[in-house]
Amino acid sequence: MPNCCVEGCNNNPKNAGGSLHSFPKKELQPALYKAWKSRKKFQSQSSPCVPLIFTEAVQGDPVFLPCDISMPEPSDKVLLVLWYREDLGTPIYSIDGRERDFSIAERWSDEKVFSNRAYFLQDKQPAELGIDHVRESDQAVYRCRVDFKIGQTRNSRVNLTVIAVASEELPDLSNTSNPSLRNTSN
């Protein structure tokens, strides 16, 4: 089973003990119970788990995090794309096409997380969140949430590993007078 941690996932430790599938007092809250029962039925018909994609980048290089924004049906359209870092509770990047065509949608980036280093490449297949000059502090699990006008919201997750670069180069010791420091592999 894929690694996942989205509400409703069968192997999510948050859902241990069946807490998602036990709704008490149905007679007190019939509307909520009906909505919960409908959600439970849908979850049993589809996979609620969100697979985790692993991506690596070298510190200082650009990185591209995939996000599937393909329409579930031709008449649908993307309304909103939200990117989250799973260790933060709020969106860190968004593309809001609710009031205009998605190709000219308003973009927003959290200054504390990306500043002006992030951009969205919607014409790629799949679309990608580009991050320039990736930093060690960018290493995290990211989630892309896509809201459609008709279709169900789609989530995808990317685990970004940043490979650190040494902060300074090693000195050239080939010409040193100390024989124990010289390279003797010649």
Distance between the termini: 52 Å
Write the CATH fold name of the largest domain.
Answer: Immunoglobulin-like
Structural class: mainly beta
CATH classification, class level of the largest domain: Mainly Beta
CATH superfamily heading of the largest domain = Immunoglobulins
Q: What's the shape?
A: elongated
- Topology pattern, helix = H, strand = E: HEEEEEEEEE
Annotated CATH architecture of the largest domain: Sandwich
* Total domain modules: 2
Number of helices: 1
Question: How do the strands of the widest beta sheet line up side by side?
Answer: 1-9-8-3-4-5
Low-confidence stretches: 1-26, 38-47
Described by strand count, sense and barrel closure, the largest sheet is: 6 strands, mixed
Radius of gyration computed on alpha carbons:
23 Å
Describe the structure.
This is Ig-like domain-containing protein. It holds the Pfam family V-set. This protein has two domains: about 1-45, no CATH class; about 50-165, Immunoglobulins (Immunoglobulin-like, Sandwich). Helix content is about 10%, strand content about 30%. Strand 6 (about 120) and strand 7 (about 125-130) form a beta hairpin. The chain is elongated. Residues about 1-25 and about 40-45 have low confidence and may be disordered. With about 190 residues, the chain is mainly β.
